C-alpha cells in the first residue's frame, strides 16, 4: 500500500487526528530522530487498541511510542505508523490498588498519587523516565532504599494484573507470571502484545518515609546521571554485565568524554551517551561502535546495546567511523 493510500485508510479507521511526516526527535529523550510517515496520538486505552488493530489489519508497520526513553530513532525516520501513547488515566481502587492506563507516567503521576494516598511500593522508581507500558516492557528496577541499597527492586513485585491486546487481537487480563520477568526483560520483547493498562498492588506506608526515599533516590541519580533537561540521552546504552558493569569497563578504557560530532560519552556516567546539541543517530551509532571496538580490544568483553533501534538509519559509512574528536588512534597490541 502506497503512503497516500495508507494515510487515507488510517484516516477512515482512526479519524482526522492521523498526521503525516511528523518529526520524532521532540518525542524522544535523546531529541534525535527523523519523521514518521504516519503519526497518531492515542488518548485512551481503547484508542490505543484501535490504532494497533488498524495498523495490523491494514498491514502497516507500527511502533508504540511512550516517553521515548531507551530508544534511538534513525535519522531517516520510521516508514509506517508511530502511535504515541498518551493514555494516562489513573485511579485508586479498593484494597490498596492503583490502576493506570499504559501511557500514564510513573513519575510524577503515579508515584505522587500513591504517596499522597499513603500507599507504598512505587516510590523507589522516582526520577526514572517511563510510562506504565515501558515499565512492564523492561521490568523497571532500581536499588532498594538507602542507606542499605542491598538489592534491586523490580516493578514485577507490585504488579497485580495487566490488560493486554494480544498479537491475535484479543483483549485479556493477565497476571505477573504471564510476563516471564527478568532483569531488563519481559516476554513483551518476544511477543507482539501491547499493554493497555495495569493494576498495582500497594501497601500502606508512611508518607514521610516515602518522601525521604524519593529525595535520596533523586539525589543519587543527580550525582551519577546527566540531567535529561540539559543533556538529552536514552539512558544506559549497553546491557549490564554481571559482576563487572558496562559503565565500569568503558570508564576503565578512558572513554568518558569521547565524542563524535555532538554525540558524547557522558563524563558523568560512562554507560550514557548524551546529545550535546545537534547529534544525529548516525553519530550515536558510530560512537557506540567505537566504544564496543575499544572495550573488546582492551578487555575482551563485547558490549551489547540495551537501547532499541527504531526506524531507518544511515549506513555506517567511513565518514561516520571517523575517530572521535578527542581520541588518539587505538592500537590493540599496546
Automatic annotation (TrEMBL):
Pathway: Cell wall biogenesis; peptidoglycan biosynthesis. PROSITE patterns: FAD_PCMH. The keyword Membrane does not apply. Keywords: Cell cycle, Cell division, Cell shape, Cell wall biogenesis/degradation, Cytoplasm, FAD, Flavoprotein, NADP, Oxidoreductase, Peptidoglycan synthesis. Its EC number is 1.3.1.98. Residues 31-205 form the FAD-binding PCMH-type domain. InterPro entries: FAD-bd_PCMH, FAD-bd_PCMH-like_sf, FAD-bd_PCMH_sub1, FAD-bd_PCMH_sub2, MurB, MurB_C, MurB_C_sf, Oxid_FAD_bind_N. It comes from the Bacteria. Its main location: cytoplasm. Its cofactor is FAD. One of its GO terms (molecular function) is FAD binding. Pfam families: FAD_binding_4, MurB_C. It catalyses: UDP-N-acetyl-alpha-D-muramate + NADP(+) = UDP-N-acetyl-3-O-(1-carboxyvinyl)-alpha-D-glucosamine + NADPH + H(+). One of its GO terms (cellular component) is cytosol. The active site is at 236 (proton donor), 306. GO terms for biological process: cell division; cell wall organization; peptidoglycan biosynthetic process; regulation of cell shape. The keyword Mitochondrion does not apply. It is found in: Cytoplasm. Belongs to the MurB family. Cell wall formation. This is UDP-N-acetylenolpyruvoylglucosamine reductase. The gene is murB.
